[in-house]
Write a structure and sequence with these properties.
Distance between the termini of chain A: 45 Å
Oligomer: homodimer
Shape of chain A: elongated
Order of helices and strands of chain A: HHHHHEEHH
Largest interface: A-B, 84 and 84 residues
Largest sheet of chain A: 2 strands, antiparallel
Number of strands of chain A: 2
Structural class of chain A: mainly alpha
Strand order of the largest sheet of chain A: 1-2
Strand content of chain A: 5-15%
Chain lengths: 157, 157
Amino acid sequence: MTKPAEDPKSDPVTDTRLRGFVGYNMKRAFNALQADLVRTLEPFGLRMITYSALALIVENPGVRPSRLAEALSLKRANLVVIVDELEEREWVTRTVASGDRRAYALQCTLAGRKLFDEASTAVRRHDARMLQGLRDVEKAALRKALSHVEARGKGAG
Amino acid sequence: MTKPAEDPKSDPVTDTRLRGFVGYNMKRAFNALQADLVRTLEPFGLRMITYSALALIVENPGVRPSRLAEALSLKRANLVVIVDELEEREWVTRTVASGDRRAYALQCTLAGRKLFDEASTAVRRHDARMLQGLRDVEKAALRKALSHVEARGKGAG
DNA sequence: CAAATTAGTTATGAGACATAACTGTTATGA
DNA sequence: TCATAACAGTTATGTCTCATAACTAATTTG
């Protein structure tokens, strides 16, 4: 019944159908970008999630873990180990929040701020590298399209 | 130097710095898109990875597991359970490859093909939904930028 | 034909994330 | 007021995805 099952030893596997979907292209693009970003952050002892957390703490000094978790789209429980990690390396401090002894206020140390600035320079270079060769109009279009997709995806709950 | 640690109870957490990076925007856009896609595929008993595998088998009948794994950017070992799953539901068959008794030729069953076509209709609707509101020029720009980023990310090994 | 290689598989571990249950603190309302 | 509910952070645990290493059987190579 089954055809002699054409020998696929030599011909490459095509993904024409999947290439027709934005989601597929986006996943592949993001995976490639992510690999480069991981390599970029590694020398600083940072992962994507710890860099992001640090960035939000720098920008929102005194932020509480639960609100930080929400901003990072992860559960409070999982943020604990991330803050543990940042605190252990003395890049971030947990101080009791004024007016609510249940909560903590997260803040950057000087060392944390220094590391963040250095890492940010590398991340900016990485970001530029990913977009190298695109014209400004195209970069702007990408940004717009991404924020559009983000909103459409969230909305369609 | 640092301000009295403004009480962050009410004001929202901002991510202005991170928003400046394509990677951050891409991660968020993809996460949102992914959530919608998972919901789209769930009624068919498919996950993103099983749908992708099915699509590649449909397009490359007789493909071998190792080449399929490569095309999906995952290790041979991890493809086994995926093909197991597709085979158990009788959507895909493993037949001994002609000329090499170590290898298998993967092929879709009629039921598998039918399911794939139905799921594909839903996925196309999902894809259109994610891009709804963007003009054709902008969709084209997104595609171009994504393939650009994919190439840049891969290249910079 | 012995040795190395290859295809598929199994077992196992790491990493990211979710859920449930716990402690201590604050808020609510009968 | 004070029992109860709600909340912030934490701990323990399970799931899902993916990587690595080791195994079997078949094929290639020198």
